[in-house]
Queue: 2 jobs
Job 1
Amino acid sequence: AQSVTQPDIHITVSEGASLELRCNYSYGATPYLFWYVQSPGQGLQLLLKYFSGDTLVQGIKGFEAEFKRSQSSFNLRKPSVHWSDAAEYFCAVGAYSGNTPLVFGKGTRLSVIA
Amino acid sequence: GAVVSQHPSWVICKSGTSVKIECRSLDFQATTMFWYRQFPKQSLMLMATSNEGSKATYEQGVEKDKFLINHASLTLSTLTVTSAHPEDSSFYICSARGNDEGNAYEQYFGPGTRLTVT
């Protein structure tokens, strides 16, 4: 069964500092990987996704993620964090199958300090 | 493209009443829709998977008689919380998967419905 692990429950970074959120997955076939962001009381917003091809994926809001098959990882990065990036971040893994839902990690809460 | 709407965005109801939440794919057809529940400061928990024209498949521990799911068309799925109780208060999020080659890999998420049962 597929699973996603986000080892960091809560991360605090200073505004302007770089950010890396970790995501490890377990999946038997080629995974389709996603990062979502959720602000309090809001729905999910897709930051970026990986299906195939270039393993470094660019997303919205200056985020990028790198797929490393050998490490079963899909870490999210941003070179300079803004206060507005404070939110909950979810990594998810899926498959190209109509009835197979995305499996989410438990999320990482990002706090940004001045 | 690939927009999913939910209605209502928030609802307050009294204990013992039923509440219906609608999920619509606005610009694409979705054979499969998923319903998630999210408790405060937690991740999304899959409740059920619904396919157009057939019965929903519920995850273990989810009461199918309490959470009625209907997927009557390729653009509409509904979740009805029957005889709601305060413990049903939560954030409910629906998601739709496209039918076409270009959008079958993704799930598109609605904005969520905040249910408060008093």
Job 2
Amino acid sequence: NAGVTQTPKFQVLKTGQSMTLQCAQDMNHEYMSWYRQDPGMGLRLIHYSVGAGITDQGEVPNGYNVSRSTTEDFPLRLLSAAPSQTSVYFCASSTPPGELFFGEGSRLTVL
Amino acid sequence: AQSVTQLGSHVSVSEGALVLLRCNYSSSVPPYLFWYVQYPNQGLQLLLKYTTGATLVKGINGFEAEFKKSETSFHLTKPSAHMSDAAEYFCAVSDRAGGYNKLIFGAGTRLAVHP
């Protein structure tokens, strides 16, 4: 099993550019989520989804967009990148209650 | 709203010594609690979790944690540290009211193990 796969692993953007971080899972999990990890701040929830067609905001949703058209995929879109969005992004899927399976992360730098 | 506080952003122990990583939470409803570990350049993986039942929870790699409701704590321990335990550890609480898969993480504690 591949588990949770994130692409790309590394990305450099210029301020104002847009991009999509891809996330796919092959475990048939209903719940998926995106976190960002910044030094000294742990992981903060950006958006999550409890199933296909259902998404909701987490702690830090501004500047990000998500959709969930299939159970497997949960892409994260940066609409207009800002230096404050420089971070490591983790996608996770989970089985209840709360056992998250994480991808290996996508490191984003915004110049 | 739920929150998690991890006391000590860095902890250093000698190989063979006791490991104690502290976690306190706040929650308006009975919590589900978790410890995750992150090795360098990797994602997080589950060490152990408390949902209901026995308050002393055993996890992988010899770690355990005890849920103490009166102290709102869920400290992580290991009797004897190994060099391979060096990593960052995160405590998390689930938001049951918002769906128990929605986890709120602490800021993390980086554990160093020296010979």
